Amino acid sequence: MQRLFRIVGLVVLLVAGWLAPARAQSGGEQTIVTRLRWDTYATLAAANGSTRKVPTFQGAYHGPGEVVGTLTLRLPGTVATGAVRDAVYEPFAAADALLLRTATLPTTPAVRLRYGTEARQPISYALVQPVRRNAQTGQPERLASFTYAYQLGDAPASAARTTAVHTFASASVLRTGDWFKIGVPTSGIFKLDRAALSSLGLPVASVDPRKIQIYGNAIGVLPQANAAPRPDDLVENNVLLVGDNNDATFDAGEYFLFYAPGPHVWALDSTNRVPTGFHHVNNVYADTAYYFVTVGAANGRRVPTAAAPATPPSGAAITTFTDRRFYEHDLT
């Protein structure tokens, strides 16, 4: 039994030595040696609801829209500078290479630094993209092992931090007053007239239309990253009061128009992964976005007046524009 325990213990130590990175320190420079195990696949969900299988490694993190997983190195302290050394790449199997978007891959190791705090101590994270496109062959290659050398110090001024200072409202705007809830299934311009507001329960006969306010956070699905910006409380929206007689009476010819993004939104794509510059973000948690109507003590926010656009050159007429469409067929 004792011999068996020694054998099992030796196997555990060998496995731990393979999975865990080795650290070394020489003078002011520190190094961490890492080996990756490419022995699994990840199933990723596309924006249209379909799934795709891609080769990946143990411990990979796949963010929204990412095909290639990210390797995260946890480094105590604040890393001022760092670089990948002694990188050993190996080719993918032919079938696995077809599952990757080779044209979007970098030709050199891509490393990003992020900073945070754990137990009141500074912590750094080196985010490594372990797949490259071979500049000579044009084929994708995976990172098998490498050394990350770094020095501690002050973080670069342009460095992004994983923690951010947020300001929080002392209480929600919903704490006082009467509120009326509106559900919006798609993005668009919506109209609220006397009949619509009356059906919500708002006393239109005695309400001052100038005091009507509409609140809602049009951001689609909440971001997964804690450091990503998002409204702390409901935000008041700009609305257009059509037929405004500038009095305290809600006349029959007056109505409100406001633009309300729905639960599924288009986001600007800064990675150049898509030719249109935008990607569709499907909200898998809700099929309706909600807005709230109330009568405030002050006048509500209104759509400001913009300057008229410059007259187009003689003979020029704008009759078309580029738009985006997205079709999704729910399979469940």
Description:
Strands 1, 2, 6, 9 and 10 form a 5-stranded antiparallel beta sheet that branches. The protein has a 4-stranded mixed beta sheet with strand order 5-8-7-11, with no helix packed on it. By secondary structure, the chain is mainly beta. The chain has 2 domains: 21-161, Immunoglobulin-like; 173-295, no CATH class. It is built from 3 helices and 19 strands. Strand 1 and strand 2 form a beta hairpin.
Q: What is the structure about, briefly put?
A:
The protein is mainly beta and 332 residues long. It has helices spanning 2-19, 94-97, 194-200, and strands at residues 22-26, 29-35, 40-45, 51-56, 71-76, 79-91, 110-118, 121-129, 131-133, 140-152, 160-161, 180-184, 188-193, 212-215, 240-242, 255-260, 265-268, 278-281, 289-295. The strands form 6 sheets. Strands 1, 2, 6, 9 and 10 form a 5-stranded antiparallel beta sheet that branches. A 4-stranded mixed beta sheet has the order 5-8-7-11, with no helix packed on it. Strands 12-19-14 form a 3-stranded antiparallel beta sheet, with no helix packed on it.
Mean pLDDT: 81
What is the CATH T-level topology of the largest domain?
Immunoglobulin-like
* Tally of helical runs: 3
Largest sheet features: 5 strands, antiparallel
Do you know the CATH architecture of the largest domain? Sandwich
- What is the percent of helical residues? under 10%
Structure summary, number of beta strands: 19
Low-pLDDT segments, ≥5 res: 1-20, 160-164
Backbone structural class:
mainly beta
* Shape, principal axes of CA atoms: elongated
Instruction: List the domain count as a whole number.
Output: 2
What does the radius of gyration come to?
28 Å
Approximately what portion of the residues adopt beta-strand conformation? Answer: 35-45%
Give the CATH class of the largest domain. Mainly Beta
Q: How far is the first residue's CA from the last residue's CA?
A: 53 Å
Please provide the ordered H/E string of secondary-structure elements: HEEEEEEHEEEEEEEHEEEEEE
